[in-house]
Amino acid sequence: MSKAVENGKNVLILGNKRNYIVSLEKVLLDSDFSVEFLPNSEESKNNILKDTPDLIIVDLEEINPEEFILCEALRSHPLSYKIPFIFLTPKDICGDLAPKFVSTSDRFILRPFNLYTTLSLINKTISSLQKSEILFSSKERTIRGDLTQISLTDLIQIFFMNKRNGLLTVSYQTDMAKIYFKKGSVVFASMGKTKGLKAIFRLMTLKHGSFEFDTNEIPKTLNLSMNTEELLLDGMCQIDEIESIKESLPPLETVITVNRTNDISQLKSSEVLADIIRLCQTEISMRELIDNSQFPDLDVYEGLRILLVNGIIKPHSANEKEEGKYFDPLVGKEDFFKLRKFFKRIQWREGEILTTKLLIISSDEELEKDFIKSIETGFKDFSSGRKIYRTENEFRDIGSFRITHEAFISLCAFPSSVELSPLWELLSSNRIGTIVLFDFKTLSSLQNIKEALQFLSESNSFPVVYAFNNTLSEQIISPENLKRESPVLFSADIIFYKNHDALSVKSVLRKVIEKNCRIELITLD
């Protein structure tokens, strides 16, 4: 083992020591795990059985059958069948693509991955196994608990693995749901008027509530016959897909209606779309529509996305004409639908909002202040006091401005110090772009933040914009000349602006938001 610890959290990594695996090992060691490496081959089996780990991480090369031989052998052995696997994969694996030996305790993580999100998943997986042992250590017929301590997905998995019979009653808010188990399999589920698969998939999303499991209760009717492991895998896949779609939708409380200017006759061939349109004939919130639709939630969410993007249904707003009086939107509402994937839905103050980060690195504190002043001039709704992320120090929330009625961009200073590089991946998540503020005269100081600029330029496809103060002739500060002066700029999009010109700064921001950054020169008189 790489490190001996007293807490007994032992992780085995199967595969080669690539750079990202070494980084993961460091994070695990810093979190008091012991870590061991072995090849992903059958020859490793005996070594594993001599000292069984709490969890096995498998770094997959190409997702071929040979890569799963060792794992399948361990899953069928009485000494190792309960060990959970976390597979690091080069592409998505879900549903029928997953090997048949995979259980609900196993997870797939797509590379590249966030180290700290992976650490959280590892802790959660091991914690779930520990809770299973505690849960059934009691001889009581009735088991009670809280969903904040153990998730419903973990409960279903635990009851399945232990082949339990009985009724699980879940109390949440002012409602109650029921799930019956027979030999560990889910055979009945109800959540208010919703029953069957639609009910169980919704219940899997609950974060808060209490539960009670009674082994004396038996179901009178059955409405589920799906294999419980497949049910959980499909449910988790659907939940992930729904969460992804929700990022491109308005809040669920938004009232929607049919846009009667569109021809909808061609949509009658789709039962789901036709059902949504039927329900939208009168004003209805998206949440009510999803509840009232007879179709699975995932189909309804996808249908709503398609109909909204194509303008066949639209959000209803009684104050739509008056909204423009209060702020100048950066992009039109129709274009904004295309950008929703970059925004994250979060709880802020007393409601939900959509937000994304625009990171700012500046070579000069005064340059940053001037840039913010220009934003305040160009956007009436910008507020340095409205700090959505409420962070300080190196990664500080500079302020935010509204780009639609419910969507905000948070301007966040990005720490360029190499000492903070382990946090760069986390801090740069959920960003729509980066602006690096420089005056041509201080171009040499780019070297001081070279590592941060390279990370932001290469970590993903989000644009990095170098916004230079246009104080010299266009020939001297041409993109070609700048790239010769500093190789750091080679892969970046470059835009010039006049720092005290609100229209110029606004143009820079518009190009970041619209994802249309190109190598070009902006000259505004």
TrEMBL record:
Residues 10-126 form the Response regulatory domain. Keywords: Phosphoprotein. The modification 4-aspartylphosphate is found at residue 59. PROSITE patterns: RESPONSE_REGULATORY (PS50110). The keyword Thylakoid does not apply. InterPro entries: CheY-like_superfamily, PatA-like_N, Sig_transdc_resp-reg_receiver. Gene3D superfamilies: 3.40.50.2300. GO terms for biological process: phosphorelay signal transduction system. Coiled coil: none annotated. PANTHER family: DOMAIN GTPASE-ACTIVATING PROTEIN, PUTATIVE-RELATED-RELATED (PTHR36304), DUF4388 DOMAIN-CONTAINING PROTEIN (PTHR36304:SF4). This is Response regulatory domain-containing protein. It comes from Candidatus Schekmanbacteria bacterium RIFCSPLOWO2_12_FULL_38_15.
